[in-house]
Amino acid sequence: MLSVEHVTKRYGAFTALEDISLTFSSGVCGLLAPNGAGKTTLIKMLTTLLFPTEGQILWDGEDILSMGSDYRGLLGYLPQEFGYYPNYTPKQFLRYAAALQCIPRQTADQRIVSLLEVVGLSDSADRKLKKFSGGMLQRVGIAVAMLNDPRLLILDEPTAGLDPRERVRFRSLIHSLSKDRIVILSTHIVSDIETIASQIVMLRDHRLYCCESPAAICGRFRGKVFEVPADTPLTGGQYLLSEGQRDGGTVLRILSDAPPQTAVAVTPGLEDAFLAIYREEGRS
Ligand SMILES: Nc1ncnc2c1ncn2[C@@H]1O[C@H](COP(=O)(O)OP(=O)(O)OP(=O)(O)O)[C@@H](O)[C@H]1O
User: Fold this and answer.
1) ipTM of the predicted structure?
2) In testing the pocket of ligand 1, which one of 20, 41, 207, 209 has its CB within 8 Å of the most ligand atoms?
3) Whose alpha carbon is nearest atom 1 of ligand 1?
4) Which residue in 50, 112, 181, 248 could disulfide with 44, CB within 3.0 to 4.6 Å?
5) How many C-beta atoms surround the C-beta of residue 29 within 10 A?
């Protein structure tokens, strides 16, 4: 189990994260917040690339900074910008990554065959990476992060730049990898995690806003989200969340405790919750 205890991170006088406490357990945990909220800062601390200014991060009760290579041995990490050699094939690149991790060649070769299968790249194992799509490259990145069969897999905005089909494929892959491990995935795209995350962490105003299941987060807005015709004038206390199409006409999705008479109550989804939580200026 991974727990963050009263962690604050300052860059000089700027406080990026303040007094964050939370616990991660098996399954997918989505770190969902707008750009600049501090997701990468938190992830870099979880991967020991940055140190907390205050507080500590514990793996099974032990400070990850004092665990050294023991912690790195149980961690798989796919950074936001995944560097690779374009002239390598995935097989060559995985062998190279395995050598850096001191994984014996024979063990590595067996693992590489099975990982390429898992990420759906067996047929492209000998093609050069420079010919790969963004989604294929990200799947190579996942395979690299999975080489040591980590108990903790951390992915920083892994779906950035992927097309919708690749996103769906990637989502299924992440879900399948989360059976016996903690997978922490940062994103600002709700649909990346809505259906696969058992836990969602949201940051707001540099603090932890919530760490709950998607259903619990949506439940906070039950009875407060409505659809109204597009020409409905909104008054104080009625906040526009989004626009959509319904029966051929445009409708507004709004958040309100006192909706207009024409309003139809709808079940809040995670996107409604995200938009409601970050509705104030500059947050969504
Ligand atoms: N090295 C640094 N020095 C000063 N400020 C920094 C540094 N790194 C990040 N910040 C600031 O800390 C805040 C959080 O940044 P961070 O990159 O963690 O956010 P994020 O949620 O990952 O955003 P993005 O999705 O855009 O990467 C931002 O305001 C950013 O400008």
Assistant:
1) 0.95
2) 41
3) 11
4) 50
5) 25
* Tokens 């094939």 belong to residue: 89
Distances in whole angstroms, Cα of residue 140 to Cα of each of 30, 80, 87, 171: 21, 14, 14, 15
Q: Hey, is 83 helix, strand or coil?
A: coil
Which pLDDT does position 10 carry in this prediction? 97
| Residue among 7, 9, 10, 14 to mutate when testing ligand 1 (max atoms within 8 A of CB) | 14
Q: Which two tokens stand for residue 42?
A: 């938190």
Residues 206 and 18 sit within 8 Å (Cβ to Cβ): yes
Q: Is the CB of 38 under 6 A from ligand 1?
A: yes
Q: Which domains does the chain have, with CATH numbers?
A: 2-218 (3.40.50.300), 223-266 (no CATH)
Distance from CA of residue 11 to its chain's centroid?
A: 23
Residue-level pLDDT at 167: 85
pLDDT of residue 266: 95
Structural tokens at position 216: 């619990």
Q: CB under 8 Å to 243, separation ≥6 — which residues?
A: 230, 250, 251, 252, 253
How far CA 190 is from CA of 138, 193, 214, in Å, comes to 19, 6, 10
Candidate from 9, 10, 11, 185 with most ligand 1 atoms within 8 A of CB, to mutate: 11
pLDDT by residue (tens digit) across 92-132?
999 999 999 889 999 999 999 999 998 989 999 999 999 99
